[in-house]
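Subject: Sanity check before I submit

Could someone independently write out the C-alpha cells for this chain? I want to compare against mine line by line before I put it in a report. The sequence has 200 residues.
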Amino acid sequence: MPIQKPPLLIYARLVFGLVLFGFGLALVVLGGFGVSPWEVLHQGISRRTPLSIGTTIILVGIIILLFLFLLKEPMGVGTIANVLIIGLIVDLTLSLFGEISNIFPRVIATLFGPIFVALGSGFYIGTRLGPGPRDGLMTAFNRRGVAIWKARTLTHRRFMCYHRFDTRRYYRMGNSLVSTFSRPLSTILSSALRDKRLAS
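---
Independent answer below. Compare away.
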C-alpha cells in the first residue's frame, strides 16, 4: 500500500506556524526585557561574533541536528523547516523594525511576542512532521531514561546562568500559552481534514 503524503494544508500550517514562531521570537528580542533560555544562548553568540541572531539560530539548529542524527533520533520535514525558517524570519523581522528605543512599543512587543510564539507552536507542532531540533534534543534525553521535566531543565534552563527576571517569566508564560493554543488548533485542523475527506 503506497504511503499517503500529507495534504498541502498540513505543509501550509507548518510554514505558517514557523513564521509566527520566528516573528514572535523577534518581537521578544526587540522588546529587550529578557528572552527565552535558548535565545540567551543565541543572543550571547551573536553579540560576540559577526553572526546575526537568525544565523546563530540556524547554525545552532544544524549542530543539534547532527547530534540527533548520531543518536538516531526520528526527524522529519518539520525538523529541517524549523531550523531554516525560524532563523530567517527572526532576521527579517529585526531588519524591518530596527532598534526600538521607545518604552511603549518595547512593552507591546514583549507582551505579544510570547503569544505569537505560542500560536506558532500550536500550528506547527500539530502537523506531526517532526519536532524542532531543540525539542528533539529533549526527547532524546527522555528516550535514554531522563524524565521529561529533567530533560527540559537540562536543555532550557542551563542557558539562564546569566539572565534577567523577565527571562524566567517569559519561560513560564510561553509554556502556558503553548499548552493553551496547541490543543484547540489541532482539533480545528483535524475537523477540517475530516470534513474534506467526507466531502470528497
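---
OP: Matches mine. For the report I'm noting this point. Residues 160-182 have pLDDT under 50 and may be disordered.
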